[in-house]
Design a protein that fits this description.
By secondary structure, the chain is an all-alpha fold. Helices cover about 70% and strands about 0% of the residues. Helix 3 (about 30-50) packs parallel to helix 6, helix 4 runs antiparallel to helix 6 (about 100-125) and helix 5 crosses helix 6 (about 100-125). The protein is elongated. The model has no long low-confidence stretch (mean pLDDT about 90).
Length: about 180
């Protein structure tokens, strides 16, 4: 679904990929839409496990945590050749006007992402390293929106240039990133 889209992948393809009979699909999911919700949740679990945890790494300063988080996501996209994009963004764009449950789940996941980022940005504000008149929650929303735009651009252009520009944007709000060596 990340490669072809929700509507382009049929239940038969899903069942075949899972090596189960097509009828078995409906033992697990009442509808294809329910499957879409489950894959959003599974994708989010991966993001939390592999990337979101970096925002809470108190061995680093908040700015470095934010950088490490976004660099990890950027690398995840690079590792797949940029083509698949973000499953949350893909499904939100494809299904947002036709499936209220998928739209609502995507919105919920974006809010969770913003909340985790806002908590780290709040710490940066408290320590005086956040250079912005914006409240951390508003800035978190802007950064999520900008990053999702960078994901789309990287998907179209199949390169990391949009992520490099995004990191330059981070340095505007967290200026110590402009002179600090990138972390991995």
């Amino acid at each position: 679904m990340r490669r072809a889209g929700f509507h382009a992948v049929g239940v038969q393809e899903i069942a075949s990929a899972a090596s189960v009979p097509k009828g078995s699909f409906y033992n697990y999911f009442a509808t294809k839409e329910a499957f879409g919700l489950a894959i959003l949740d599974a994708y989010w679990d991966e993001i939390e496990r592999d990337h979101l945890v970096k925002l809470g790494d108190e061995t680093r300063c908040p700015a470095e945590r934010v950088r490490a988080f976004f660099q990890g996501l950027s690398q995840m996209h690079a590792d797949t050749g940029f083509g698949p994009g973000c499953l949350i963004g893909n499904l939100a764009l494809e299904m947002g006007n036709t499936s209220d449950p998928i739209r609502a789940r995507a919105a919920k996941l974006l809010r969770q992402w913003e909340e985790a980022l806002a908590a780290c940005l709040e710490e940066a504000r408290r320590t005086g390293t956040l250079q912005s008149g914006l409240e951390p929650r508003s800035l978190a929303a802007i950064l999520v929106e900008a990053f999702e735009g960078a994901v789309m651009r990287a998907k179209v252009e199949r390169d990391a240039a949009a992520f490099v520009r995004f990191e330059a944007l981070l340095a505007v709000f967290l200026p110590q990133l402009a002179t600090a060596a990138p972390t991995q």
